[in-house]
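Query protein
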Amino acid sequence: MKVVVFISGRGSNLAALLNAQQSGGFEVVHVISNKASAYGLEIAQENGVNNSHIVWTDKQQGEQYAIEVLNQVKPDLIVLAGFMKVLSAQFVAQFENKIINIHPSLLPLYPGLNTHQRAIDDGQTIHGASVHLVDDQLDHGLVLSQCHVEITQQDTADSLAVKLITKEHRLLTETVALIAANKLTWIDSLALNGEPLASALVIE
């Protein structure tokens, strides 16, 4: 299964995908970043993965360049991994059911930014991350899988991020591997090995 990864920053989820691709039955064939300074582009280069920096100042133009790359590469799956732009409804429609995003909260709780601090401020005791299908709304769409971490009284936003990151990597890589194996599907309804799931798959 061919995967294109969109990034904006350090690329830790990208690195996790690259490390897992051989055993996971998928291949990261291209990396797109909206930031030239994104360390994830260096990770792509070090791993011999084709990559593009697309200036996203003009959203319509940025998306058009991305569409041109995607039409050339023809990926089976597009993974947004720390990509800090909201895609338009027109873009999503062109790649319907092919775009997933990883988000550091238990969606539908806390779409957007500063998820760790918001969870702490609300007195939550459980936090986590979600992999979801992308639609035309921010951090919205069918949630495919989730992982969980406990919030203690000592936790800060930074400590929670550290606590979550390794679980986040596992969540993303295992979800993509299940998709590659055609075990996790969602066209009619969310299912694992053909059996309907009442809620998101939990991967701890």
Observations:
- DSSP finds six helices and eleven strands in the chain.
- The chain has a mean pLDDT of 96.
